[in-house]
Amino acid sequence: MRFADFPFLRYLPFLVTGILLASFLPVGFEVISLGLLGVVWIMYLVGVAKKTPVSLGFSSSLGYLLLLVLGCFIGSEKKEASLSVDAWQGATMYLAEVKRFDIQKPNSSENLLEVFSIRDSLGWKKTQGKVLIYHQLSSSLQPGEVVLVNKIPEIIPSPSFPDEFDYRGFLAKKDIHFRQFIRSGLVKVDFSNTRSLEFAIDRLGYFLSNLIDQKVEIAESKQIANALLLGQKESLDKEIKKAYSETGTMHILAVSGLHVGIIYAILLLPLRRFKDDSKFRKGYLLAVVVLIWLYALMTGFSPSVVRASTMFSLATAGQMRKKKPSIWNILAFSALLMMVVEPEVIFDVGFQLSYLAVAGIVGLQPVIVRWWIPGNLVLEYFWQLAAVSIAAQLVTFPLSVFYFHQFPTYFLLANLVVVPLAFLIMAVGVPFLFLGWIPMLGEVMGWLVNWMIYFQNQITFFIQLLPLGKIDRLTITFSGMMLVWILLLIWGNWELGNRKKLVVLGMVFFATWGVEGLFREINRPTEQLWLFKRGNKEAILDMNLGGHHLSWNQSFPLDQLSFSIDPNRLTEKRSHMPEPMRGVWQDSIVWFPGLDVRFFPGKNEISWGSRKPEKIQDFRRDNSGEKPQSQSNLDQNAGFRAIF
């Protein structure tokens, strides 16, 4: 079929482009974009209303421009316009509403406050913003409570080291820019809103989580049950996360389209007994849609769940009308709907992986499944499941490598075993959430969920321990990622598409990738020095001399290397286990004879000897490319680079 047959798929790139453009525009641009939106809309209406019809190309161009400007408008409107650093100047306390139940951490409890008033020397003033808090209060906080905090929060710091995970940026996408550690100084002043309808879903989730805690015995099974059935992943143990991640089954632990699909399939089983034109059938399908959205609401409206719920709702509507709408149109429409409601979702990794996985399944699974025609129903079932897993993994692995730098070797084996188990657990677990409060029945169902999850965990741990279970330290550039997707697109459309256009498309992207890679290697310095500091006592100095990677460590904790320093080593293609470099201590100075460089840890300074670098860069300062002097000052907690 032609690309023109999928209208929503044509609209999607223009809205996405507008939202991405909005991220580069200043705060307040929504007024200008709203004016542009009005102008373009009037032009479009005038063109359509003319007696002499305008050309199809002109009207379609205006329509696409309308989508582009709409993306700019909604992206600008949703940009950060909340509490600023200046708002806290002179402030001594603030009033805020608790937004959720406490999440237990090793040494404290985490919660989220919505600030609505700040007090300074002039009195109280209204404002808005969010503060992430960690407290050690004797009593827990509940959503809807109003609290008075006698201290002001701090802005969430930016990453100290280059290529380190940007926790500040991650929270900023959720409009959270401040955090606070509270041991005391918090007073509950109002409880009247704790039973409001706004927090009904939070209370339901809390009740169901307590039900799981009471009826499911094994600690690991409780964690998986909360994640699998309710989408509450905050309590997951690091080892469990690692096991599921390294076996390629992490999607099992995040309430996603898979879970919605399982529930949808279970709910549709009774329909086999009713005719297609039955009134009961239509009423039952409507009830299924309502239950799907209730589950989505209960699990927090994650991007993958909303996508799946929207798609199943539209597919169900098609069943009611005896029509089968294009899955591509449904997929694109659900994405458009989500981005209009919440433009920032486009930057969510879960959103990206979810839509890529479904696109891969829809586009590549039919191609893969034709490789082999099994001789019996059992083999056919597992082959269909394998084809789905292969298709999803092929399309998502470039993005997974881009973000997480690893690939699970045994993903196919793990998914062939764990996904059917997850189906069985959901088939028992979802009824357990509704019926678990009934004596005896709740105990039996809780026991089944407990041991089924235990069995699933043991299989996952076993697969994780198999030799060469993962390939890690993988890297891919943005152009390389795009090239992989283009090649998959060509493969999926080779039989029915225009082969000449597909070949040209592939050659263009292959040439772009090659030129970009060549340009990057030509401009890659052969000699570089990196210095990573944390305080006056912890530092790492890395040196790249051609193909040799050297390192000197001054008390920097080894358990911090993986998330603080290793991301930069990976990006710059340095070894994560470099050769040790000699540093000679002379009083409070470290001298590196081979480099003729002196490092002053207490003063945060580097003194250059006979070999001065061509450029220096302190990643916490705006001095990229600065010409070095005989001595360079450093930030206390930052990464520093010198290019020779």
Structure write-up:
Residues 228-494 form the ComEC/Rec2-related protein domain. This is ComEC/Rec2 family competence protein. The chain crosses the membrane at residues 12-44, 56-74, 250-271, 283-306, 327-347, 353-373, 385-404, 410-435, 447-467, 473-490, 502-519. The chain is an alpha+beta fold and 644 residues long. The protein has five domains: 3-77; 85-195, OB fold (Dihydrolipoamide Acetyltransferase, E2P) (Beta Barrel), CATH 2.40.50; 211-472, no CATH class; 478-522; 527-643, no CATH class. It has helices at 7-22, 30-49, 56-77, 167-172, 200-215, 219-230, 238-246, 257-268, 279-298, 303-320, 327-341, 349-369, 377-404, 411-435, 441-464, 478-493, 499-522, 561-564, 566-571, and strands at residues 93-98, 103-104, 109-120, 123-135, 146-149, 154-155, 178-182, 186-190, 406-408, 470-472, 527-534, 538-545, 548-554, 579-580, 584-586, 589-592, 597-600, 605-608, 615-618, 631-633, 637-643. The strands form four sheets. Strands 1, 2, 3, 4, 5, 6, 7 and 8 form an eight-stranded mixed sheet that branches. Strand 11 and strand 12 form a beta hairpin. Helix 5 runs antiparallel to helix 6 (219-230) and helix 8 (257-268) crosses helix 14. The longest helix has 28 residues, at 377-404. It is globular.
